[in-house]
């Protein structure tokens, strides 16, 4: 029967969280031959090479042989069969009774020489190993109180025998065991009861004090008293080396014929050689500490003063059968009453934790604290003392520096060292016997070293009628064991995120609970079937039949290799024996987690306990593979438990720091994020699980599935993402974003399924959070910006992303998803849906038509450009034609003739705008007639159908005429007052621009269209008529309309200056010079683009006609002002006599003063120029004549024959 053990930190009482656990070695040992006696106790235990030796209080030595369990049964317990039941020979002292026999007191195995020494009732006998056959004939050593003293530093394979120490009444015999038993030395040390040896230095104890013995030179250094109240040993001799050499006999060990021997305690030899040491000061301070203990605080019960003769030897508890005289003997579960303090003889304890150190225990009473003191082989203190809550019954050390007696596998050179002390502890339900465990190698800076309490679970110990003290001992042999608990926790198992009844939930359940996606359920179902079919086909190729069972076996073998450990410490009580095994860190921390998880309320205290587990190894590097997996496992367990607590914490929400710490634990632990998502309703259905499954630590699987399959979770499993609280959504956003940054890491297993799940869940969370964002474009570091970053970077779950985005009606986000995959056609289709349907959830798709136009310039597909250019031209003709007119697009260019025909067929409303581009932008005059026709249709139709439009046009004439000079031209007046949304008005401006340009168009057809308006009202399109008159050389009519119908005098002057070639042209500002005062100045003006400069006669004729129109103005003021201004600026084109003949006689000379002065100056200038020219001609004539005379003289006369 296996008994569990309970280890705890003294201040917390957490089961299983201590450094040691008990595992059954042998349950219900048959201590009595017939099983009828229950008063037989186990005194000592030894184990070597599957042989178990048990010494009992009934003076029997039991030899059991271990039969290992079936290798296939990993949880099986070895079986022990009885090999022999031996009663070693012994001799009773005279007058001794059976009740006073201690039984088998010590078993000393010497495997290097194949011998065993057994101390039974103060008699030593010798046997062979392993069958315990007697050796050395009938040799016995009587009146022996202790056997031991084997050199712990000696190699176990020594060939020259083994030296042991026998504690006799007056001396210690040094005996070499080999082919025979030979006494090689006798040491004069009386009453020794315990010895531990390192090399030639033995630490021994009698009934009162400890001492160091140098065996070869027979020197003794007295140490402290066992009882701090014992003053029989003077402090002056403590630590001083003494020579105890005397007659030391040698030879074969012979049987002692004495039949009666009593141990006498002798005072140490007062002769000494002084030796400087600080041990005396240390002992004095310890004594003072004990003297200050308050007696009234001790455990109730009487103390008996036990004389030295009756003190038990270190092996068994001498006198345990006489319960009335033993301090720990109880019959009613309570300790005896405390008597006044007096001389108390305590059992000595010596252990050696390191090759050059001994640990000694002193105290004042069995019920008061004990003090452990460390001394080296030079009798000098080496470490700080340790304290036991009560004086121990037995102690054992384990681990520390490299030590063959460790019960833990050698993980590193820095193994922890512990001391285990058997003692009693009074609790609320009575006296408990167990082990107090603490570090003996703890740092001196630790003022309060941790202590742990370990005791068998008494509820399962059916054979123990009353509490009994525990024995503890470090055995010679080592037992290999395996922690099934580690296997259960670290062995990876397939995780089940969905109950078998909801196996299809992974892909469909979200749609079933969210009405927004109900319309896509059928589509998703088909996609899931296709997806599973593809995955199954892939798995069929890579996963052989029975692959899961094979993997389970492999995972278990791997975990079992890590779970192996060794045991060397034995603990016993009653008929039961346990192994005291180092409790692996993973089990210690997991026990703490289980204790914290038992708290029903989700309080900050529970969270602190969970964080405490991972903080215990924060910043610590793993020293072994098991420790590495331990850290990962605990982080995963803590992360899952914290997440469950987070989901349940409604009254005590997590702080921001706690949330961050939880996220860190989940991410650093490398736990598959699908496990995290599977326990959060609303996103768990995004988990993708293929036939390969999700494999996680068995302990984490148990925790997660326990929560998932609970009734509380089942009530919430169908809730949608929108019902999750904002803190949960924010946690998911940060957690999934962090995990997404691990893409491409080789350490992520099942990378495809993991990141498809992560991307889908993160997208769903961001879509949900972004519903509360203000409409419009994304702002920096906002949820919407993160959403864009996710879809722009591309997601692994493309099909699922489409469905999710559609369910939230976020079409612009969907278009960005398509753009990440360079799916141009789908991008344009989505944008067209947004514009046509007006479905712009989020309001981020602003200026949609403009964005379509810009996007079309970036794609190379001419077919898509044409398709969406036509669509855009029908919606926004001005913007649509830019698609076909853009020369910077990546798609092949369209021929204008093709585009015109295409627009006429599919987007007739955009033809006019494209023609404008061709004419005004590209200068294609071939389309001028057609464009003019479009403009005329718009203008004429508007005037014919709208009386308000006609009145508006006529009112502009009146308004313009009413303006006082200086005033703009009429065309500029129209431009400045054009309504922004009046298409007819803007068409008229474009019409004027075309008619006034140097284009070839059919003026007769245009005049006919304009004349058709006369049936409604005369002169509706005056500027147009003026331009046509000028083009047809009807200058007089054009000037009449300009002066009398429009009152645009400046344009009339410019018309004459240009010779009637054009009016209201786009080159007007570049070509005319209204400040030219004569035909000569005009010749210096820039040349006109549309025609050659007019002749002076043409200009004179036009200016003469304009003067006539000015003189016919009805308003006298305008008549005088405009006539005077014309003559003043352009007087050079007029004849003075002609002007004087037409000017009314009533006008004053001052009105013509400027003209007359300039005219007279011009006449004088011309006269002077004529005189100068004549003089220059005379001079030139004289020069020529002179040159002729000179030439004749040079030539001389010539005779003509």
Could you characterize what this model shows?
The structure is a single chain. With 1201 residues, the chain is of the alpha+beta class. 39% of the residues lie in helices and 17% in strands. It contains 37 helices and 32 strands. The strands form eight sheets. The protein has a five-stranded antiparallel beta sheet with strand order 1-27-26-25-24, with no helix packed on it. The chain has a five-stranded antiparallel beta sheet with strand order 10-11-12-13-19, with no helix packed on it. A hairpin with a 2-residue loop joins strand 8 and strand 9. Helix 14 runs parallel beside helix 16 (798-807). The longest helix has 43 residues, at 1153-1195. It is rod-shaped, with a radius of gyration of 59 Å. 40% of the residues are buried.
Q: What gross morphology would you assign?
A: rod-shaped
Bin the helical content: 25-40%
Strand content: 15-25%
- The order of strands across the largest sheet is 1-27-26-25-24
Query: Taking all residues together, what is the mean pLDDT?
Result: 81
For the sheet with most strands, the description reads: 5 strands, antiparallel
The SS-based structural class is alpha+beta
Count up the helices. Answer: 37
How many strands? Answer: 32
User: Which stretches are low in confidence, meaning pLDDT under 50 for 5 or more residues running?
Assistant: 1-12, 254-280, 288-338, 458-466, 501-540, 1066-1090
What is the CA-atom radius of gyration, in angstroms?
Answer: 59 Å
Please report the distance between the alpha carbons of the first and last residues: 173 Å
């Amino acid at each position: 029967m296996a008994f569990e053990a309970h280890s705890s930190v003294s201040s917390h009482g957490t089961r299983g969280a201590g450094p040691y656990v008990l595992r059954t070695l042998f349950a219900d040992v048959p201590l009595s031959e017939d099983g009828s006696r229950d008063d037989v106790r186990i005194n000592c235990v030894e184990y070597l090479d599957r042989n178990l030796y048990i010494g009992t209080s009934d003076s029997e030595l039991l030899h059991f042989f271990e039969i290992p369990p079936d290798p296939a049964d990993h949880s099986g317990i070895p079986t022990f069969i009885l090999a022999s039941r031996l009663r070693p020979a012994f001799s009773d002292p005279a007058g001794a009774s059976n009740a006073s026999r201690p039984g088998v007191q010590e078993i000393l195995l010497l495997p290097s020489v194949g011998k065993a020494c057994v101390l039974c009732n103060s008699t030593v006998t010798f046997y062979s190993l392993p069958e315990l056959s007697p050796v050395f004939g009938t040799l016995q050593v009587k009146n022996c109180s202790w056997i031991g003293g084997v050199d712990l530093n000696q190699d176990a394979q020594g060939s020259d025998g083994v030296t042991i120490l026998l504690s006799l009444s007056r001396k210690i015999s040094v005996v070499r065991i080999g082919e025979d038993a030979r006494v090689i030395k006798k040491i004069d040390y009386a009453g020794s009861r315990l010895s531990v040896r390192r090399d030639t230095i033995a630490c021994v104890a009698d009934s009162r004090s400890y001492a160091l013995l140098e065996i070869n030179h027979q020197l003794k250094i007295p140490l402290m008293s066992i009882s701090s109240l014992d003053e029989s040993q003077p402090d002056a001799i403590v630590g001083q080396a003494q020579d105890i050499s005397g007659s030391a006999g040698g030879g074969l060990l012979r049987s002692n014929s004495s039949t009666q021997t009593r141990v006498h305690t002798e005072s140490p030899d007062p002769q000494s050689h002084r030796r400087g040491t600080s041990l005396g000061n240390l002992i004095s301070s310890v004594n003072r500490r004990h003297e200050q203990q308050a007696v009234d605080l001790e455990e109730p019960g009487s103390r008996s003063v036990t004389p030295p003769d009756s003190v038990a030897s270190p092996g068994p508890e001498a006198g345990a059968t006489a319960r009335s005289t033993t301090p720990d003997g109880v019959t009613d579960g309570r300790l005896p009453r405390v008597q006044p303090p007096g001389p108390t003889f305590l059992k000595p304890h010596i252990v050696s934790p390191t090759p050059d150190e001994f640990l000694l225990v002193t105290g004042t009473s069995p019920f008061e604290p004990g003090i452990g003191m460390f001394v080296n082989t030079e009798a000098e203190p080496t470490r700080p003392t340790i304290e036991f809550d009560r004086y121990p019954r037995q102690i054992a050390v384990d681990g520390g520096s490299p030590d063959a007696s460790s019960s833990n596998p050698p993980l590193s050179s820095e193994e922890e060292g512990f001391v285990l002390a058997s003692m009693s502890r009074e609790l609320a339900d009575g006296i408990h016997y167990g082990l107090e465990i603490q570090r003996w190698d703890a740092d001196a800076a630790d003022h309060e070293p941790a202590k742990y309490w370990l005791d068998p679970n008494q509820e399962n110990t059916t054979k123990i009628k009353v509490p009994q003290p525990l024995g503890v001992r470090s055995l010679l042999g080592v037992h290999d064991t395996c922690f099934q608990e580690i296997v259960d926790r670290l062995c990876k198992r397939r995780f089940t995120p969905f109950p078998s009844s909801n196996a299809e939930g992974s892909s469909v359940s979200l749609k079933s609970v969210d009405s927004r996606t109900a319309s896509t359920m059928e589509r998703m179902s088909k996609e899931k079937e296709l997806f599973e079919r593809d995955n199954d086909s892939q798995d069929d190729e890579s996963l052989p039949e029975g692959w899961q069972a094979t993997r389970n076996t492999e995972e278990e073998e791997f975990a079992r290799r890590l779970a192996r450990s060794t045991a060397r410490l034995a603990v016993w009580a009653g008929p039961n024996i346990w192994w005291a095994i180092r409790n692996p860190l993973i089990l210690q921390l997991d026990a703490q987690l289980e204790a914290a998880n038992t708290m029903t309320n989700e309080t900050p205290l529970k969270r602190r306990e969970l964080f405490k587990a991972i903080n215990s190894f924060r910043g610590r590097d793993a020293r072994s593979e098991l420790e590495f997996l331990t850290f990962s496992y605990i982080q995963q367990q803590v992360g899952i438990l914290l997440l469950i607590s987070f989901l349940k914490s409604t009254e005590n929400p997590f702080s921001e720091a706690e949330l961050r710490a939880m996220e860190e634990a989940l991410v650093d632990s490398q736990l598959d994020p699908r496990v995290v998502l599977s326990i959060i309703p609303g996103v768990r259905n995004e988990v993708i699980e293929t036939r390969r499954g999700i494999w996680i630590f068995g302990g984490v699987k148990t925790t997660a599935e326990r929560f998932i399959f609970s009734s509380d979770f089942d009530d919430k499993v169908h809730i949608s993402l929108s019902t999750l609280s904002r803190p949960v959504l924010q946690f998911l956003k940060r957690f999934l974003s962090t995990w997404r940054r691990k893409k491409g890491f080789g350490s992520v297993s099942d990378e495809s399924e993991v990141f498809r799940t992560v991307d889908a869940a993160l997208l769903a969370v961001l879509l949900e959070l972004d519903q509360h964002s203000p409409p419009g474009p994304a702002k920096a570091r906002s949820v919407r910006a993160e959403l864009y970053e996710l879809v722009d970077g591309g997601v692994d779950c493309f099909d699922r992303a489409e469905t999710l985005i559609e369910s939230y009606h976020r079409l612009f986000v969907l278009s960005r998803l398509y753009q990440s995959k360079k799916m141009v056609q789908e991008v344009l289709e989505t944008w067209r849906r947004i514009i046509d349907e007006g479905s712009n959830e989020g309001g981020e798709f602003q200026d949609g038509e403009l964005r379509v136009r810009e996007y079309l310039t970036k794609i190379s597909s001419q077919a898509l450009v044409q398709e969406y250019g036509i669509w855009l031209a029908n919606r926004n003709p001005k913007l649509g034609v830019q698609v076909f007119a853009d020369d910077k697009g990546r798609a092949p260019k369209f021929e204008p003739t093709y585009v015109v025909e295409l627009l006429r067929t599919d987007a007739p409303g955009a033809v006019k705008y494209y023609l404008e581009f061709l004419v005004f932008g590209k200068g294609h005059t071939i389309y001028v007639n057609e464009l003019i026709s479009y403009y005329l249709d718009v203008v004429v139709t508007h005037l014919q159908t709208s009386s308000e439009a006609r009145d508006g046009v006529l009112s502009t004439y009146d308004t313009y005429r009413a303006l006082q000079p200086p005033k703009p031209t009429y065309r500029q007046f129209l431009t400045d007052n054009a309504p922004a949304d009046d298409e007819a008005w803007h068409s008229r401006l474009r019409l004027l621009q075309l008619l006034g340009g140097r284009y070839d168009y059919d003026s007769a057809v245009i005049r006919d269209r304009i004349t058709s308006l006369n049936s409604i009202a005369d002169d509706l399109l005056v500027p147009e008529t003026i331009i046509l008159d000028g083009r047809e050389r009807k200058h007089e009519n054009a000037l009449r309309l300009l002066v009398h119908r429009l009152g645009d005098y400046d344009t009339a002057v410019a018309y004459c200056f240009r010779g009637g070639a054009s009016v209201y042209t786009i080159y007007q500002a570049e070509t005319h010079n209204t400040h030219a005062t004569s035909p000569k100045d005009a010749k210096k003006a820039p040349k006109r683009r549309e025609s050659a400069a007019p002749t002076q006669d043409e200009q004179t004729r036009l200016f003469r006609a304009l003067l006539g129109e000015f003189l016919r103005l009805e308003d006298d003021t305008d008549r005088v002002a405009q006539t005077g201004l014309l003559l003043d600026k352009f007087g050079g084109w007029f004849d003075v006599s002609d002007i004087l003949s037409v000017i009314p006689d009533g006008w004053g000379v001052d009105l013509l003063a400027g003209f007359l002065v300039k005219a007279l100056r011009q006449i004088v200038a011309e006269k002077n120029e004529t005189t100068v020219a004549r003089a220059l001609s005379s001079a030139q004539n004289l020069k020529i004549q002179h040159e002729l005379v000179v030439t004749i003289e040079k030539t001389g006369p010539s005779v003509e024959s």
